[in-house]
Each structure stands twice: as structure tokens, then as C-alpha cells.
Amino acid sequence: MKLTSNGRQWVVGMLCLAVWPGLSAFGMLAPPTEPCKPAMIVASALPQLHFNHQAFNTRIATNALTLFLNTLDFDHSYFLASDIVEFQQQGPQLADQLRVGDVRFAFDVFNRLQQRVTNRVDYVARLLDRGFDPNTRDTYRWKRKEAPWAGDAKSWDELWRKKIQNDYLARTVALKLAEEQKARQPGRGLFNWGKKKAPDQEADEEAADPKLTPREFILKRYRQFQTALQDSDAEWVLQRYLVSFTMAYDPHSEYFSPSTEEDFDINMRLSLVGIGAVLSPEDGAAKVERLVPGGPAERDGRLKPKDKIIAVAQGTNAPTDVLHWPLNKTVRLIRGQKDTRVVLTVIPAADVSQTKTRKIDLLREEIKLEEQRAKSEIREVAAGPGATCKLGIVTVPEFYADLKGQQQGQRDATSVARDVRKILAEINRSSVQGVVLDLRNNGGGSLEEAVTLTGEFIGSGPVVQVRQRDEVQVLSDTDPDTDYGGPLVLLVNRLSASASEILAAALQDYGRVIVVGDTKTHGKGTVQSLLPLGRPEDKLGALKVTTASFYRIAGGSTQLKGVAPDILVPTTLDSLEIGEEFLPNALAWSSVDPISYVRETDLAPLVPELRKRSEARQAKDPQFAVHRQVLRRVADRMTNQDISLNFKLRLAMAKEDRELEKLQQQDEGLSGSPNKGKDKKKNDPVLAETLRILADLINLRAVPQVVKAAA
User: Fold this and answer.
1) Exposure string (b/e) for 308-319, b if CB count within 10 Å is 16 or more?
2) Three-class secondary structure of residue 684 per DSSP
3) 512: which of 359, 507, 544, 564 fits an S-S bond (Cβ 3.0–4.6 Å)?
4) Cβ proximity of 565 and 289 under 8 Å
5) Choosing from 259, 498, 575, 671, which is the catalytic residue?
6) Cα–Cα distance between 396 and 400 in angstroms, integer?
7) Contact yes or no for 540/38 (Cβ under 8 A)
8) pTM of the entire structure?
């Protein structure tokens, strides 16, 4: 059994193909005609396998119902209060229904949603034809996830009148700004170098497209949502329904259909067999967003971004029409065995009439997802008058591993720890004076990889404690060798979760690192096991269930609390509702006894001086002055749940935001720079300050008396 600590949510729905009769005569989804085995297994397995062993009872079913309704209608605008009362009356029976494989309730709810969406899309068209008062004093409450559902048709219509007026106003303001931008810049200007355009200018020109008037823009968006909903199949509904029950236990337990499990494996091993194209749904087709560099499609050259795939054939077989298929089904049809041929029927993006098609045949290959692989770079950073430091940056996007390959003993199985070990060897050969380990946005992954990677920065010793039931197991690094023993700073944010927090907590407890970042990391202190629901040929999927919690070697959990940085360099994430504490049914914080370990170094005496220097730099740095303005603006917007529907007020607000964005772009070197887009990290103020903190750490370790004087 492999343990993982991945904090990412994986949602793709496919299952029970043999028993779904498909759409009814009225376009509504018909429920299955036979008991659904995955539902029965989930109902019986959860109370046995889950860490807290809660009974599968009415309370779980009630929580699951709430989650399911919020998943389908997150801002409480489509369903009516009467719908919710009706659904809640059935809530107490849902646990018993799931035990016998009865999932009809999920389809009743989904079909009601389709009816409500159809009603609202028709109403949106009428509202747009009627128009809006630009001088109104009305406001719209945009933050509605806790708001009550509309109690009657009148309040429902009024809610949607404000909702669509807000959409219309946002679009109108965008067009106005685009017109002003175009009038100011008939030729070359501040945001116009050569043939390239600044990011805000590109956005303005897209907004100014005459094909995207406010009415058409809004109506197209809601009709596309309606189409996507109508294109959803029974498997999509089942996926979300069963996940609602697993997440009633905790936010990281999930049901994986066979396709979801496949996607999980792909992400962990960073490879798949396909054509190397990233797709998105549009107008019922699979639109090509971009091509993976070096992949079969990119090398062939015929498939282009914005082309639309409408049919897929396997070799010489007849093509399968994939129009109005769920995107994940189309993707799986395009994937396949290595060295097999797939034939795509495509509407070229260049065909304005959208009537011509062409066939493109491609040979499938293994595609390496290099974007998520660990990377490194070396920089020279100022370290005092006339002095510089040579510093390394190691970025780890996630704790990936080919779990199946490792189980089978494959020596070249994908491993983040192995990749970082190679990177550290190269860095050591380059004689760097210090390293920043960047774990921002790293949502976790393999627990074993986190332990192994921690061991690359310490000698042997315990790394993390894992509690299952009443037993506490200590996972240790048994390799006495250290791959990198020099000055180390760890950069995190509120999206650094799970395995990232294991590594950060261990290195912090060993005194091996200075942690820099947001006020805390995500706060996910639980471990999940991926357990198959049957034999592979049964195609029943898998259950990712929380089976353990992990603890620092000092005894405390990172659950909810996360890892607090030694030096605060906040981002806008600190103002958003991001973190374990904002997730439904999150488990409580707890602790276990600390275990014996030897601190390799003690950087605590250096922290006050490092913090003092960093705060002084941030206070004087013009770039951080803009950064603080952005933080304040985001915090203000998040606390103010109401937004004006008056055109003049919104236009003034948008202009303030635009000026702030321009200042931020200028200070980050993104405006008027010929290097735009080449290396955004070099224009990253948080990373830049982290490197300066590392340079300070190197200097203070070399001159310890400075620390004593500062103390």
C-alpha cells in the first residue's frame, strides 16, 4: 500500500458505462437501471478505512448533501429555496440508499439543475434585451457561497437582475478602458515595443473585439455553461455525488473513477502516451489550447492552437463523433498505446465559416510533462558594497513519483528526490554559496519522496511521525550522507501543502533552514492511501481515503496551523480564503509526543537580525511599496462583499486598479521590457527578497559577532 500526501483535488468523472441507459427522451439524464457497485463499496469502506472511523450515517449523508448542492450551485443562484427544502427532506435516506447502490437522487438533483439553468439562460437574454440603468445606486453581493437561495420567483429574478447587471457593467467598463487605451496609443508608446504588446494592451484589444459586445459576451458565456451541463453524462454526475460522500469525512478523501485514477498516475509519474496537446471545451468541441513542445503534434505541424477536434479514429477504424462529449472522454480516446496511430477530424481555426474539416493522423508517443519537473538556476546577488553572492534556486512544483514503477522495482522510475539530488550535485560543482528551495504552490504528492528529499539536506534521523489508529510510526532518513549542507532558505506560501509542509517542518525543527513566505502554509496534516475498489478488469475505480495524520518530530501537527515562516514576505494569497481552515469538514489539530532528534544547526539566534534587515529593505524598496498597495487592495476587496452597480463608480475603480497594475508591471520590469515572458521569476519581488535574505544569512554566518551585536 502506497501512502500519498497530495493536497490537490482530482475531479474527472467516468464510471458504470455498462449500466447507464443515457439521455431520456426529454434531454434529462436517466438514472442507472442496476445497483451501482462503486457506490456500495464506498458506503461500506469509508467507515472502516477512514482515519476517524465515523459511522456512515445520517450526519454524513446530510453533510454530503450540502457538499453536493454547493458543488453544483456554488454561489447559490440557480436552485430555489423550495428545491433545497425538497432535497433536504430526502437527506436522511441517502446513506441507506448508497449502501444498496441507489444513486437516483443524484440524477434528480442534476436534472432539476438543468431545468433551472435553462430558465435562467432564457431570463438572461430577456434582461440583456431590456438593458440596465447605469446611474443606479444598487450594489451586488458578489460573495454568495453562504447566502440563502432565493425564496420565490420575484427574489430569484431580482438576484439575477443584479448578477447580470454586474456582468454587463464589468464588460462595459472593460470596453471603455480598451477604447481609451487605443486612443492613447495609435502607434508606439510606453506599452508598445516593436510588434509586441503589453499584457494589459492584449487584454484590452481582446475586450475591444466588436464580436464580443456586452450582450453577446455574457449570453455566450451562459449558453456555453448550459451546453457544458447538457453535455455532461451520468458518469460525471456519479463522480461528484460519490466525492461528496467521501469529502463529508474530510476534504482530502475522494472517489477516483478509473479515468480519474489514470489522471492521478499521469500527474505523479509526469508522463503519458498521447499526441502532446492541451485541450479545453468550447462550443461542444475539444479546442486545442497549446501544443507540448517536442510532442508528436508540435513536430508534425498540422494541428494548430484553437483548432477544434470533432471526431477521433483509431488507426484505420471508422471515426467516433466526439461533439458534445465530456472533454475527459475525448482526451481518453486520443490517448492510447505507444506507437499506435490516432486520426483526428479537425475544424481548423483559420476557417472562419467553421464548415471545413481536415483529417490529421499522428503516431502516439510518451509525452514527458517537463513543466512539473524540478528545475534550478544560478544567480549573482548583491551582498554588500562591491560584493556578490553566487546563489542557487531549486524549484520543486510537486512531490511526484512513479508509484507503480517504484513498486515494480524500475530503477529509472520518476522520482522528485532523484531529480533534486542530480540538481544539487550540479549546484555543488558550480560552487554556489547558498540555496533557495522554492516550494510555493507545491500541493504535495508522495510522502516517501518528501522523507527522502528531506534527507538530502540533513544527516540521518527522524523526519516525520505518522499516526494510524493508535499507532505512531516514525519515518526516518537512514542515509548519513548529505547532498547539500550549505546555507539554505525555504520559500513557501499558502498553497504549499502536505508533503511540502513535512519537509519544511522537519528542516525547521532541525534548525537547518530559514523559512520565508506567507503567514502560514496551507495546513494539511493528513495522509491519504489510494486503494483499488476491485480488480483492474472490474473498472470500479479507487478510493483515496485519509488513513493517517502526520506530525512534526517536535510533536505538533501541521493540520490547520501549517508551518509558520521565520520571516514574513506576504503575497495576495494571505488575503484570500486559502488554507485548510477554509475547507469543509477539515480535521482538528492534534499532537503526539515529541521524539528525540539532534538539531544539526541553530539558526534561531540569526532570525531577529535577518527579519530586521528584510523589513527595512521592504520598507524602502519602491517595488515593495507597490506590492503592499496590491496586498491592501486585495484585502479590501475580499472584506467588502458588496460591489457598486453604478457605471461611473465602477469605471473609477477599474482605472485605479489599472494604474496599480501598471505600476506593478513597471516595478517588476514587465512593462516595456524586451524580455517580457522569458523568465518571469527574474521579476518576482518575493523571490528577489528571499535571495537577499539568503545573502544576509551567508554573511551573518561568516561574521557571527554581528548577530551578537544585533541581539
Assistant:
1) bbbbbbbeeeee
2) coil
3) 507
4) no
5) 498
6) 9
7) yes
8) 0.82
Three cell numbers written together for 201 = 494592451
> Domain boundaries in the chain?
12-122+234-260, 145-226, 271-368, 371-710
- Distance, CA of 209 to CA of 204 (rounded, Å): 9
351 C-beta neighbours (distance < 10 Å), count: 14
Nearest to 357 by CA among 296, 283, 284, 307: 307
Looking at residue 560, what is its pLDDT? 97
Q: CATH number of the domain at 371-710, please? A: 3.90.226.10
Of 452 and 372, which is predicted with more confidence? 452
**Is 431 among the residues known to form the active site?**
no
Q: Which amino acid is at 21?
A: P
Number of alpha carbons in the 13 Å side-chain half-sphere of residue 374: 24
For cell 493528513, what's the residue?
526
Grid look-up 438533483 returns 109
Closest by CA to 563, choosing from 397, 700, 701, 440, is 440
From CA 362, how far away is CA 420, in angstroms rounded?
Answer: 34
Residue 195 has pLDDT above 50, yes or no: no
Q: Where does the pLDDT of residue 539 fall: very low under 50, low under 70, confident under 90, or very high at 90 and above? A: confident
Degrees to nearest 5, angle at CA 48 with 44 and 52: 125
Active site residue 648: no
Catalytic residue among 167, 204, 402, 509: 509
- Maximal C-alpha separation, the chain: 82
**Could you tell me if 392 and 432 are in contact, meaning their C-beta atoms sit under 8 angstroms apart?**
yes
User: How many whole angstroms separate alpha carbon 30 and alpha carbon 33?
Assistant: 9
For residue 602, CA distances in Å to 243, 433, 627, 702, 704 come to 45, 19, 32, 14, 12
Homologous superfamily of 271-368 in CATH?
PDZ domain (2.30.42.10)
pLDDT digits (tens, 9 = 90+) for 152-162: 999 999 999 99
Provide CB contacts within 8 A for 305, sequence distance 6+.
288, 289, 290, 291, 349
Q: What pLDDT sits at residue 703? A: 57
Q: Is 477 a catalytic residue?
A: no
